[in-house]
Design a protein that fits this description.
globular, 148 residues, two-stranded antiparallel ribbon, D-tyrosyl-trna(Tyr) Deacylase, Chain: A, alpha/beta, 19% helix, 6-stranded mixed sheet
Amino acid sequence: MIFVIQRVTEAKVTIENEVRGEIGKGYIVLIGVADTDTREIADKMVAKMCKLRIFEDENGKTNLSLADVSGSLLLISQFTLYADCKKGNRPSFTGAGAPGMASEMYEYIIEQAKAYCPDVQRGEFGADMKVSLTNDGPFTIVLNSQNL
């Protein structure tokens, strides 16, 4: 499982010209799921993501968590995080989870995140989404379950 976490001052996702999810201060998280991922892995990833201390305190140190700043989450499924570009110029996505399983895992991640954050917004699995954001910093972290 891969989470690309960006600290933002604002972000939104639009599907068919309709805003479906929108946040102010918080994280936008691009979520990639592999066939080998489990709910236990998702639990660890969500806990780690929500407990990261990457917001600045009064001294300018990254010492505050999402909860400390009353931040929001915008969670977006993105199978392309598993792109394999080793051969040729056309990426292969065989490392990404099968759609049924990955969709179920995405829904599970959203529900687990609600235990840590009262404002969880989302995209739509498999939809053509337009994502816009203002990265705060910029500050981007990649969490890979293989490294936890």
